[in-house]
Amino acid sequence: MAKNYAYIRISDGHKQDSKGQRDKITRYAEQHGLFIYKWYEYTLSGSQTDKAQRGLVDLIERLAPGDRVLVNDIERLGRDSISDIMEVTTRIINAGAELHFCLTGDTLTPSHKNDIGQFFIQIGQAFAAQDFSKQRSRKAKAAAKRRQEQGLPAGRAKGAIIKSKLDATENQILFWLSQDVFKSEIARRLGVSSTALIKWLDRRDELICQARERGLYENGLSISEIKARLKRKNPKN
C-alpha cells in the first residue's frame, strides 16, 4: 500500500516556525484525501548541511513505487545547491514516488523523468512560486512597518471579508479543476500566481463553512453572494 511522507525543514538561522509548513501540508493532504504515514521534521540550515543530515537520504531509501512525498515548497529540499535539489527530486521520482509541493499544488511524478521539458517547467514553477511568496512577505512587512511608524493600524483586520478579482472567475476555476487542470496552469491562464490562486481557494472554503454555520448558505450561491451575505450579517467585516 502506498505511503505518504511529509517533510518539514526549518532554517535554524531564521528560526521559522514549523507550524506554517505543517498546517499547509496537513490542509493539502486533507483536500486530496491523503493520510500522512510519517512526518520528517528537522531544524537545520539547508546550505550548511548535507542530504543525510537533513534526513533526505533516509526518506528516499524508504520510498517504494506509488509513495508520495509532501513538502511545503522546493527550498525545503535545499537552499543554495541546485545540484542537490536536482538530485533529490530525480531520486524521488526514479524511486517511483511522487513529489508534491503543497504551497503551489504542483506535482512531480515518475512520468516526468521521461519528459525533461515538463520536469523543468514544474521545477521552475516551484521556484517562482517560492520567490513570489518571499517578495509578498517582504512587502507586507515593510508596509506594516511604515503604517506603524505613522501611528496607523498595521493592516487589514484578521478574517476581513474583501473582494478578490478571482471571485468573478469562480465558475471557470471550478470547471478547470473538475477537468483535472493543474492549479499552476489555471493560475497561468488567469494571470495570477499559483500562491494567490491557492489562497483564494482556501479562503473560499473558509467562507462557505462560515456561511453554512450561520445558516446563510444555499446551493448555487457564488462566492461574491456568500461574501455579501456574511458582510450583511456582520457589518464590521
Structural key phrases:
5 strands, single chain, alpha/beta, 237 residues, 5-stranded mixed sheet
Short description:
The protein is of the alpha/beta class. The protein contains 8 helices and 5 strands, in the order E-H-E-H-E-H-E-E-H-H-H-H-H.
Would you give an account of this structure?
- This protein has 237 residues and is an alpha/beta fold.
- 49% of the residues lie in helices and 11% in strands.
- The chain has 8 helices and 5 strands; from the N terminus they run βαβαβαββααααα.
- It has a 5-stranded mixed beta sheet with strand order 2-1-3-4-5, sandwiched between helices.
- α6 (183-190) crosses α7 and α7 (194-213) packs across α8.
- The chain is globular and about 55 Å long.
- It starts with a strand and ends with a helix.
- The model has no long low-confidence stretch (mean pLDDT 80).
Order of helices and strands: EHEHEHEEHHHHH
Estimate the global geometry from the Cα principal axes. globular
Low-pLDDT residue intervals, each spanning 5 or more residues: none
> Would you tell me the structural class of the helices and strands?
alpha/beta
Total beta-strand segments: 5
SS summary, helix count: 8
Strand arrangement in the largest pleated sheet: 2-1-3-4-5
User: Could you give a short account of the major beta sheet?
Assistant: 5 strands, mixed
**Can you give the helix content as a percent range?**
40-55%
- What does the average pLDDT come to? 80
What's the helix and strand layout?
Elements: E1 4-10, H1 18-31, E2 36-43, H2 56-62, E3 68-71, H3 82-94, E4 98-101, E5 106-108, H4 116-149, H5 170-178, H6 183-190, H7 194-213, H8 223-233
Helix pairs in contact: 6-7, 7-8
